[in-house]
Hints:
By secondary structure, this protein is mainly alpha-helical. The chain has helices spanning 3-43, 47-62, 65-76, 80-90, 92-104, 108-116, 121-151, 164-172, 179-208, 211-214. It has 10 helices and no strands.
Amino acid sequence: MNFWEYLGNRHQQLLTDAYQHASAVFQCMVVATVIGVVIGVVTYRSEWAGNLATTTTSTILTVPSLAMIGLLIPVVGLGVAPTVIALTLYGLLPIVRNAIVGLRGVDPTLVDAAKGIGMSRIARLFRVELPIAWPPILTGIRVSTQMLMGIAAIAAYASGPGLGNEIFRGIGSLGSKNALNQVLAGTLGIVILALLFDAAYVLIGRLTIPRGIRV
């Protein structure tokens, strides 16, 4: 059976795995974005706090993904839980770092002007600082998403969802007639999903970032 015949026979399962893969990455990115931006907002004004946040999230990223999931399995069990926790933790660094850089890059005169017209601290944050810091934050989200697309494949080790199951099945049956087809289908599926997500982020950037800031 060649690769195209394999896709024709397995397209339903592959589509299901692709949907689960994309859904897991998307949901974890939403959680990582919220947590990452909150950490950035809390720490960007202090040099040591910002460095601590960046160092901590960098340290998390140095833990091998297979080891991370292996450490989580005894605590939360198999399936979705270790996948969600691991992906969320791995997605933090680019978002935290870019949120801190973006917020620190806001022109202080703009903040002072907003303060001068009576804006509260919260209003300045949401109406002045975060909108200006949004481009680097979005870049951090894009980087995190690309990383998590690949890392999510390891979730199959813990019976997690996604295209990693296809890859692991192929690796586990090396020598069989469809082993290469399984690995190739899973890998190409992840690459296609990553490209689609990145295209979506480009569109979001064009819709949410003013032209002057983009330039």
